[in-house]
Specification:
Blueprint: E1 7-10, E2 17-18, H1 20-32, H2 52-60, H3 64-80, E3 87-88, H4 92-101, E4 105-113, H5 114-123, E5 132-136, H6 145-155, E6 164-168, H7 171-179, E7 183-187, H8 194-200, E8 204-206
Helix pairs in contact: 1-3, 2-3, 6-7, 7-8
Length: 216
């Protein structure tokens, strides 16, 4: 039997939506500004989930200053095109409906800028299912998943952390949840792996969108 929770924090990229096309196109656009031609899109999937500045530094050896420029270039493409190169995972809306019907609460907690996250959730007509959309600030504030989760909890006056489950597809979701004293469900339909979740210490690992309902 899976433990039941009252409040569900959902990561966005790789958990609610398959955003691979928009994110990788935006990264390719940014890298070109530095004279880097990246043709293997799958190599850029590691950019999905973690904060962008961290990924530019980790995967391409950028300095902090270069990483900030990389984010600026990324957003040039993402703001107009990449944000819409995106789709909701099959069955996810039905899961959100059932969470709502059960009288429970869903909240978005993403490392994506809150401004963009709200546009995406609204674009796919999912706003009605979420009590709140929490993300990072455009200037880089709330730059870690842990900080976003803290913000989401405070904004919604959530104090009983035993009732909250973080749902995400990368190790950052697990680490951020645990830093806030929350349990975390790692889902495998996104961009993370079982090995990644096991090493990060995920409380649960599940395969499919519908498996989320085991915890409702």
């Amino acid at each position: 039997m899976s433990k039941k929770y009252e409040i569900f924090l959902f990561d966005l990229d790789g958990t609610i939506t398959d955003s691979a096309l928009g994110i990788t196109n935006s990264v390719m656009y940014a890298l070109k500004k530095f004279g880097i031609e990246e043709t293997d899109r799958t190599k850029l999937y590691k950019f999905i989930g973690p904060p962008l500045t961290e990924s530019f530094e980790k995967f391409y050896g950028f300095t902090k200053e270069q990483s900030l420029d990389g984010v600026k270039y990324y957003r040039e493409y993402y703001h107009d095109k990449g944000i819409y190169e995106n789709r909701v995972y099959d069955g996810l809306e039905e899961v959100l409906k059932k969470i709502n019907e059960a009288g429970k609460q869903a909240i978005v907690a993403t490392s994506k800028p809150e401004k963009y996250a709200k546009i995406i959730i609204d674009h796919f007509h999912l706003t009605q299912y979420f009590a709140c959309v929490a993300g990072m600030e455009m200037d880089g504030g709330r730059g870690t998943k842990a900080q976003v989760i803290t913000y989401a909890l405070e904004k919604n006056d959530i104090t009983d952390k035993s009732k909250v489950l973080m749902i995400g597809d990368r190790e950052h979701d697990v680490v951020g949840a645990h830093e806030n004293g929350l349990d975390c469900l790692g889902i495998l339909y996104g961009f993370g792996s079982r090995k990644e979740f096991e090493e990060a210490g995920a409380d649960y690992i599940r395969e499919n969108v519908e498996d989320i309902l085991q915890f409702v």
